[in-house]
Amino acid sequence: MKVVLKNCNVIPINQIEPLENMDIHILGSIITNITKTGILPYDEAYVIDCTQRFVMPGLIDAHYHLYHGDEKTLSLNVACGITSLRNMWGNQQVSIDVPEIDSYKMKKDIESKKLLGPTLINTSRICDGEYPVISTNRPLGSLGSLEQFMKEAIAEGADQIKVYEMLDKDLFDLLVELANERELKIVGHIPQMVNKKMFMNKTFSLEHTSSLELKDIDYLASTNILWVPTLIVENAIIELADGKERNLIVEEYLKYVPQATKNLWSDISAKLNGISATSENPMNVHVDKCRGNMEKVKHYYELGKEVATGTDYANPYCYPGFGIHMELKLIEACGATKYQALKAATINAAKVLELEDRKGTIEIGKDADLIILTRNPLENLEHTLTIETVILMGAVYNRNRLDEILLKCIES
Q1: Please, which residues have CB within 8 angstroms of residue 227's CB and are 6 or more apart in sequence?
Q2: What pLDDT is stored for residue 292 in this prediction?
Q3: Cα 122 to Cα 135: distance, rounded to the nearest angstrom
Q4: Confidence bin at 172 (pLDDT 50/70/90)
């Protein structure tokens, strides 16, 4: 199918200034031309008049957990302008009581258009130490268990390998070697027994801010590691611990959250709610590590570096789809310009997914993952919510179609 976006204001992301009065030509799933309006004929193309509209790359959630029973959040993400996401635990679920998903099949079903959802990148299941933090994490206590884990990850189609808190240094080093041999990137948390600087130099992306102190940010900025701070989840943890859950409830977004996920949120929230008032609660250690998260990201930007967006859904009040729009505002609050915040949700996040050659900017030859907005997000980041049309791999979803998707998410 040939599509032309006629007379756009283009926010290409690979430059700061928008391009005015432009046509974007799409053939199939690829952007084939970007010209001044009317330069190329429209032939028999499906033409979308974008006069006084703003076109930017689709948004990316680089830290997401696919949760059993809420597959429709994939279509919800599309309706919210999210065209790519990274699932951070493969087929794993939060407990053995929750049936596992087949994230690799979901990825293939999206690619074959059997399932509506963003382009999906899957990490492995979470590899942890012999006594894992989460019961369903893969416990690694020997070379044999490590080799078995890698076989499983490859068999399940993992695009990256995720590490966690309790993995010991020797097995971490071996894991890095095995992953490098298979050209798989290491991502995740800094294990407690691994030197922070070593982790930053040997891995591809760091998740969250909680493993860092403010004094670590200078060294982090000197490395090539990519950082996904997930401010939205850490702020939610702090608010819950301080007994301020009411601040997190956004009724307009909550109605789209599947019941299974709401149940999970209730369970986690009950464990965190108000614990700051009881210093003896061991969970306060993690809460305290989350405090100061905004200052850490602010300093990172002061050093000339930039982050990528991720929400850490399905954790409490990390709203699927809408959470990335909330994360943009938090990144701006850390001192990023509006343009830098948009980069965090586009090209920076595309790099985290190892898809920067295909996604994250509007350029000839890249995937046609685009959102058409009625208002300029460079003036106000909340304008990323003024979505009129989403184009996902060349497929056009107008406002009526997006509203139908949202309605189905409520009904489910």
Answers
A1: 205, 206, 220, 300, 305, 307, 308
A2: 96
A3: 20
A4: very high
Strand 160-163 and strand 185-188: the pairing is parallel
> pTM (2 decimals)?
0.97
Chain segment 377-393, per-residue pLDDT in tens:
999 999 999 999 999 99
Residue 118 structure tokens = 């963003």
**Residue 69 confidence (pLDDT) above 90:** no
368 pLDDT more than 80 = yes
Q: What distance in Å separates the CA atoms of residue 341 and residue 408, rounded to the nearest whole number? A: 30
Tokens for 216?
């670590």
Q: Are 166 and 133 in contact (CB under 8 A)?
A: yes
φ/ψ (deg, to 5) at 332: -60, -40
What CATH superfamily is the domain 58-359+399-411? Metal-dependent hydrolases (3.20.20.140)
| Beta-carbon contacts of residue 251 (< 8 Å; ≥ 6 apart) | none
CA angle 400/403/409 to nearest 5° reads: 150
Residue 220 vs residues 99, 186, 205, 284, 326: alpha-carbon distances, Å: 37, 16, 11, 25, 25
Please tell me the distance from the alpha carbon of residue 356 to that of residue 348, in angstroms, as a whole number.
8
- The three-state DSSP-derived secondary structure of 113-144 is CCCCCCEEEEEEEEEECCCCCCCCCEECCCHH
Degrees to nearest 5, angle at CA 119 with 115 and 121 = 115
Under 8 Å between Cβ of 92 and 100: yes
Structural tokens at position 34: 């970007």
Using DSSP, state whether 375 is helix, strand or coil: coil
Which pLDDT belongs to residue 94?
86
Average pLDDT over residues 59-66: 98
- Is residue 285 within 8 A of residue 275, CB to CB? The reply is no
Round to whole Å and give the CA distance between 381 and 281: 38
* Tokens describing residue 134: 């989460």
The span from the CA of 72 to the CA of 409, in Å, is 6
Q: In whole angstroms, give the CA distance from residue 167 to residue 129.
A: 4
CA dist., res. 312 & res. 61, Å (int)? 9
* Structural tokens at position 217: 């940010």
265: its two tokens: 């949120």
Closest CA to 237 of 295, 312, 308: 312
| Model confidence pLDDT, tens digit, residues 259-314 | 989 999 999 999 999 999 887 788 898 999 999 999 999 999 999 999 999 999 99
